[in-house]
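#structure-requests
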Amino acid sequence: MNWTRLAESRIEEAIAQGGFEDLPGRGQPLDLAEYFALPAAERAGAALLRDANVVPPEVELLKSIAKLKVALEHSQEPHLADRLREELQEKRVALALALERRRRRDPRGID
């Protein structure tokens, strides 16, 4: 038996047994606007990462920046505050560079 027929028979069995009846979003239209806004070469990878709950590096940098800002606001020690400011500046530069690389990859500005 070839793989296509095997897959089709398994899908038909699952349908007959009601395996697809309680899926989230059942009966709702798919919103594919975000998917098609990405360049074709990035779509599959972005969908895979999204489904695995992996965020882009830029998002991780934004989270780090927010945490550092909070830590800096609550810092009581001058030497610790200096270290936090330095680390905050490094993260901001890394974010600016990452965003610039992204802009250069897609000059239309579509991320």
